[in-house]
Amino acid sequence: MPQLLNYLANGLVFSSIIVLGAIGLSLVYSIANFANFAHGDTMSVGAYAALVTLGAVGTAGPEILELPVGFYAALVAGIAVAAVVAVLTHVVVYRPLDTDSIGMLITSIGVAFVYRAAIQLQFGNDFREYDVDILRPVPWIEDATGVTLTEHELAIVVVTAVLVVGLHLLLQYTTLGRKMRATADNEDLAKISGIRTDRVITSMWVIGAGLAGAAGVFLGLFNQLGPRMGFDLLLVVFAAVILGGIGSVYGAMAGGFLIGMLNRLTPVLSDVGIPIKPAYANAIAFVIMVLVLLVRPRGIAGGDGG
Amino acid sequence: MSDTGENSEGGGEDTKTAFEASDDEGAPFSERIVTYGIAAAAGLLLLGVLVGLVNPAYLLSLLSLAAMYGLLSLGLNVQWGYTGLINFSVAAFFGIGAYVPVLLSASGSPISGGYPPLVGLPIAIGVVVVLALAIGVPTLSLREDYLAIASLGLAEVVRLVFRNQSEWTRGTAGVGGIPSFFEGIPFLETFPQSMPVVELGIYRLAVPFWSNLLNFALVAAFVLASYVVLRRVHRSPWGRVLRTIRSDEDLAEALGKNTFAFRMQAFVLGSVVMMFAGVFYAFSQNFLTPGIFDPIFTFYAWIAVILGGSGSNRGALFGGAVLVAIVEGSRFIGLGASFRLLAVGLLIVAVMRFRPQGLLPPRDELVWPSAKRGESRD
């Protein structure tokens, strides 16, 4: 039983990362109308930007959840750099394109390669880690429930919750949020209603890529950093987006949560007698993705944007 | 490469789809550039051979690689260029084509080994057809971008199986002891060893040269056979149905065509062509690892097709050659994998931005030459 709780706790942490990635991918799908294959590598960009920042500001000073303040500065830098890079890419690459959604998809593969190559050229192919202490599980949680959860993992969940609630408030209660929902629903209608959709699309890139940057930083904290870290996660994130319903932000959150959980619960399958190696965790996500596409081509919560 | 063909693809749309040429004022110009480019590259290579910079054995391996990428892109061209299927599982078929005959013939194979590679070939075709059906049945009716994601996902499942089922594939340790493709065939089996050593001044044509020559002959035969078959079927009524499906699926349905069946046939045919690339690759290596399933090969095939011009067979071959120029050229001048990735990425972005229809767009590949000259053909 504690083992199952452990898987669930681990799944919650991994889900947080997937949720953050899935929101951005879903936003791009609903507002810019294409499957953005560069989204995974946007995560890597955020992760490496945070690595550089952490190296510059150092780990001295007070700590929150056993993470130095410098780490939170690095997180903000990771979010900011990912957002800036995405907006620049939008202005330089995507906006001048005269092509359909498949052309955009293929272009985004090229963009993904450029991001990854830039990271490889600067940092090499080796795995790296953030210069923060590796922690023991939080004692009181372990004593009370037997769940081994470190404070870093708690930090991932807490910050993700803050970001997700913030996005919810933004979408529901601000003018920008209303404009974004309107643009996602029907760009032409939004345009003739006087919404400057160009600005909305730029904000969409800032938010989507910013969240991807945060996801990358957390992925680096959860595992380690490598140039392929984001690309390797991309299909899992796609699975989450499709499960939740393409173009739906709340669906992406739900899909991300489910896929993240399932991914970490794979060992349970062998415990209950289904001999599937944990190495197939991602394969299970992909098969679920295809099944969902078959049964409900617009995803479980799909149908309406926003 | 004729300059006379009329371009029938419609302009007049606001956005270009990735495989439709717009008004083709520039096409003959771009084709001239391509022709000069190919001539210049061939001249440079020849010069390199003459001054002793490019070993003939190396030249042969370059040509073989170009042909291999050409096979991948020819296969993808059937699926994407002609039918509009956005298949991102190229690497899966490439890998199956490599693994199946090797597992049957290599001495280091964990399951059987020892069969002549030629026996593995029909078995590989069988496995590829089954895999293509397994991937195609659930995905081919999906909308195109979902098809991309789903097929990439299923290709990753195949990769994970080959990585992790080490009792069948030795997993990441890889399979060694790969024989020559011609093992068990008289004369060809011992061809590289039995040929005399030829002294050519600066070069000495010995076993590596003859063995590369044999490999080149193999892949060239694959390319030639595929090219002829594909050109023939594309011009057939079957090919015209594919073209109709690509441009207007509802129309094809209204004409009474079972579009799903046609898509599936194109998918299977293209996958078999890709498989041959894998067969060549495996038997030109000493060692096979699941790295052959890396999605990068899928993207390489896509670049080759898009660069050459979606729907154009000669474009697919040209794209394969450019890819080798980038991949091997960067290696030759000492640039690492990162530069290669950068170059490939920038190339994709540049082509989509400036020439989405590719450098050698299809113009009259679906028209019988006699029909083009205004003759009747009966």
Can you walk through the features of this model?
- The complex is a heterodimer of chains A (306) and B (378).
- Chain A has a single domain (2-295), classed as ABC transporter involved in vitamin B12 uptake, BtuC (Orthogonal Bundle).
- Chain A is 74% helix and 1% strand.
- Chain A is built from twelve helices and two strands.
- In chain A, helix 1 packs across helix 10 (229-244) and helix 1 packs antiparallel against helix 11.
- By secondary structure, chain B is an all-alpha fold.
- Chain B has a two-stranded antiparallel ribbon with strand order 1-2.
- In chain B, helix 3 (90-105) runs antiparallel to helix 4 (117-139).
- Chain B is globular and about 65 Å long.
- Chain A binds chain B through residues 34-35, 93, 96-103, 105-107, 109-114, 116-118, 120-121, 125, 235, 238-239, 242, 277, 279-280, 282-283, 286-287, 289-290, 293-294, 297, and chain B through 15-18, 86, 138-139, 142-146, 148-150, 152-154, 156-157, 160-161, 163-164, 299, 302, 306, 337-339, 341-342, 344-349, 352-353, 356.
- Chain A: This is Branched-chain amino acid ABC transporter permease.
- Chain A: One of its GO terms (biological process) is amino acid transport.
- Chain A: Keywords: Amino-acid transport, Cell inner membrane, Cell membrane, Membrane, Transmembrane, Transmembrane helix, Transport.
Number of domains of chain A: 1
Helix share bin of chain B = 55-70%
Order of helices and strands of chain B: HHHHHHHEEHHHHHHHH
Secondary-structure-derived class of chain B: mainly alpha
Shape of chain B: globular
Q: Mean pLDDT of chain B, nearest integer?
A: 84
State the share of residues found in helices of chain A, binned by percent.
over 70%
β-strand amount of chain A? under 5%
Task: Please work out how many helical segments of chain A DSSP would assign.
Answer: 12
- Helix/strand-derived category of chain A reads mainly alpha
In round numbers, the mean pLDDT of chain A is 89
Which protein chains make the most extensive interface, counting residues with beta carbons within 8 Å of the other chain's beta carbons? A-B, 42 and 41 residues
In terms of quaternary structure, what is this?
heterodimer
Total number of beta strands of chain A: 2
With helices defined by DSSP (H or I, 4 residues minimum), what is the helix count of chain B?
Answer: 15
Main sheet specs of chain A:
2 strands, antiparallel
CATH-assigned fold name of chain A: ABC transporter involved in vitamin B12 uptake, BtuC
Membrane topology (chain A): Multi-pass membrane protein
Subcellular location (chain A): Cell membrane
InterPro entries (chain A): ABC_transp_permease (IPR001851), BCAA_transport_permease (IPR052157)
Pfam family, one (chain A): BPD_transp_2
